[in-house]
Amino acid sequence: MRAPNLDFQVRAAPSAMLLLAMLCIAMPVARAQSTDGVLPGASSAGNAAATNAAAVPWSSLSGEQQALLQRFEGNWSTLPPGRQAALARGSQRWLSMTPEQRASGKRQFDRWRELSPGEREVVRERWQKFRDLTPEQQSAVRGAYQRFRQLPPERRQQLRQRWNNATPEQRQRMLQRMRQQQQQRRQR
User: Fold this and answer.
1) Total domains in the fold of the chain
2) How many helices and strands in the chain, by DSSP H and E?
3) Which is nearest to 141 in space by CA: 4, 2, 27, 1?
């Protein structure tokens, strides 16, 4: 499965609706996949911060955190400090979630595990492209994603099929129409 070559640096906000049609799974799955608090494709600055973290003693974790991370107990002291810190943060975040949020996270993680290595790589690349957008562009993408999610499931599926069946030229025309529609909305 090959990802469409979208120009994320130029006009990313107007093309956000189709971008998000393709990223429907990417962000939540990438986030759910991360067990160390660092998303796939995250900036090297974020990875460097995790690398420079102080070690987290097992005894400093709450009982709930220890129960959640019990599979790491035997080798906790051998884990890199950044990994320990990320696991501690992640376990605390998990414990603060509602049951609905936890169920959603589990579903997303299961979807991630079902992806082939090639599909995972596509997700990681898309996530990195998203991370490279300006904050304004990211906000526009998130807004478009929310609008897309509010569409009836049949309409979302119809849009996905239309995009997947389109030639590169047809996709470019679709993106151009979306850009024009978004400009018209902004002018209102």
Assistant:
1) 1
2) 10, 0
3) 27
